[in-house]
Amino acid sequence: MANQIYKQIISFLLCVLLIQYNIVSSVQKSFSLEKPCKHFVFYFHNIAYDEDNAANATSSTILNPMGLGDFSFGKLVIVDNPVTMDQNYLSKPVARAQGFFFYTGKTNFNSWVSWTLVFNSTQHKGTMTIMGANPIMESTRVLSIVGGTGDFLMTRGIAMFTTDLIQGNKYFRLKIDIKLYECYY
Ligand SMILES: *[C@@H]1O[C@H](CO)[C@@H](O)[C@H](O)[C@H]1NC(C)=O
Ligand SMILES: *[C@@H]1O[C@H](CO)[C@@H](O)[C@H](O)[C@H]1NC(C)=O
């Protein structure tokens, strides 16, 4: 009998130790910023609709409130933009960036982005969703990759945006450097 109680106490203590170990190890789980599990460099091409280029345009301003200062505050743009491996917007896209962005600065240019990169090629099938503040006046910005599907199921990481080229209101190109830190495939 005493032996039984003794055994129970021991196994109880072992359980407590195991639980504590799990809590501590999940908090201490770390990764190296230098060692992403996947790394991609893409170019994002925004060809704005200007009423004359319906065949060519890949993005459209759907809301543009007037009189709120000089920084497009409130302007909302829907995109279905090609994403390529190089700077040529006519190169075969590896993905499309589908979603929207809007301008959020009243006293300077600032924006906020929500895009899903949709991959549908022999190389990659799946999606990756990028979301976050995109302060476009800074030369590089880091946004969150908040999740994914398919080849990128449940991924997380960061996307570093660099403005590569701006041609007036008609076209801009971003370099998007993606580092994933959670990969299941
Ligand atoms: C398509 O857009 C590009 C970039 O703005 C422009 O250089 C080109 O002339 C356009 N092509 C047509 C057919 O409109
Ligand atoms: C993906 O590509 C396949 C083959 O080209 C096509 O049949 C399918 O409709 C595409 N899916 C999407 C979501 O674009």
Summarize the model shown.
This protein is mainly beta and 185 residues long. The chain is 15% helix and 48% strand.
* Largest sheet descriptor: 8 strands, antiparallel, barrel
CATH architecture of the largest domain: Beta Barrel
Ends distance: 52 Å
**Which segments are poorly predicted (pLDDT under 50) over 5 or more consecutive residues?**
none
**Count of structural domains:** 2
Unique bound compounds: 2-acetamido-2-deoxy-beta-D-glucopyranose
For the record, the CATH class of the largest domain is Mainly Beta
Total helical elements: 1
Oligomer: single chain
* Element pattern in H and E: HEEEEEEEEE
| Helix fraction by DSSP (H/I, runs of at least 4) | 10-25%
How confident overall, as mean pLDDT? Answer: 91
GO biological process, one term: phenylpropanoid biosynthetic process
Main location: secreted
Subunit structure: Homodimer.
Family: Belongs to the plant dirigent protein family.
Can you offer a commentary on this structure?
The protein is mainly β and 185 residues long. It folds into 2 domains: 1-29; 37-182, AOC barrel-like (Beta Barrel), CATH 2.40.480.10. The protein contains 1 helix and 9 strands, in the order αβββββββββ. The chain has one helix at residues 2-28; strands at 38-47, 59-63, 76-84, 95-103, 111-120, 125-134, 140-150, 156-167, 171-182. The protein has an 8-stranded antiparallel barrel with strand order 1-3-4-5-6-7-8-9. The chain is elongated and about 90 Å long. The structure holds 2-acetamido-2-deoxy-beta-D-glucopyranose (2 copies). The site of one 2-acetamido-2-deoxy-beta-D-glucopyranose has 6 residues, from loops. Pfam families: Dirigent (PF03018). This is Dirigent protein. One of its GO terms (cellular component) is apoplast. It is found in: Secreted, Extracellular space, Apoplast. Homodimer.
